[in-house]
Design goal:
Blueprint lengths: L1 H14 L16 E5 L6 H12 L3 E2 L8 E17 L5 E16 L2 E16 L5 H28 L2
Parallel strand pairs: 1-2, 1-3
Antiparallel strand pairs: 3-4, 4-5
Helix pairs in contact: 2-3
Length: 158
C-alpha cells in the first residue's frame, strides 16, 4: 500500500510539470550562444556564463558562430543612502544591481530588452565599518545570484 501511495505521489508531481529549482530548460535557438557583455569583468557576466554552461548551453567566442546572441545592454551596481541620523551620518544604505539584456537569433528577436533591478538594504554603524563592508559584499553577491536566476527563468519561458 505504501509503495502504491509513493508511486502515485511521484507520478502526480511529475505529471503536473513540477521541476526542481535550478533545472533550467533552454530553447533550441540558444544551444550555441554568444554573450555580448557591456563589462566582461562584471560579477553578473561571470555568474551568468557559469549558469548557462551548467544549463547545457555552449558558449561561443563570436556572434557568427552562435545560433543566438545574448546582449547585456547595462550592468550596474552601487549603493545609496536610505536614511541619516540626527548628526547627518548615514544609518541605512541600499545596495542595488541593475541589468538590461536582450536575446536575438539571426534576424529574429527572441526576447526584447529587459530591465531588471534588485535591491537590498542594511543598517550602517560607524563603529562596525569592516563588518558592514563585508555585509555589503554578501548582499551584492546575493543580488547577482538572484539576477542570474531571474534571467534563466525568463530564458526558460522562451
Amino acid at each position: 500500500m505504501s509503495r502504491f501511495l509513493a508511486l502515485l505521489c511521484v507520478s502526480f508531481v511529475a505529471g503536473c510539470g513540477f521541476h526542481l529549482q535550478g533545472a533550467v530548460t533552454v530553447p533550441e535557438e540558444m544551444e550555441s550562444t554568444f554573450i555580448d557583455p557591456v563589462d566582461e569583468y562584471s560579477q553578473f557576466y561571470r555568474e551568468l556564463r557559469v549558469a548557462l554552461k551548467m544549463a547545457g548551453v555552449e558558449l561561443v567566442d563570436s556572434a557568427e558562430e552562435a545560433t543566438a546572441v545574448l546582449s547585456i545592454l547595462a550592468d550596474e551596481t552601487d549603493q545609496r543612502v536610505l536614511s541619516v541620523s540626527a548628526r547627518n551620518e548615514p544609518t541605512e544604505y541600499e545596495v542595488y544591481y541593475s541589468v538590461a539584456y536582450s536575446i536575438s537569433s539571426g534576424e529574429a528577436v527572441l526576447l526584447t530588452p529587459q530591465d531588471i533591478t534588485l535591491t537590498n538594504d542594511y543598517t550602517y554603524d560607524t563603529r562596525k565599518v569592516l563588518g558592514k563592508a563585508r555585509e555589503e559584499s554578501v548582499l551584492r553577491d546575493a543580488l547577482v545570484d538572484d539576477l542570474v536566476r531571474v534571467v534563466l527563468k525568463q530564458i526558460s519561458t522562451l
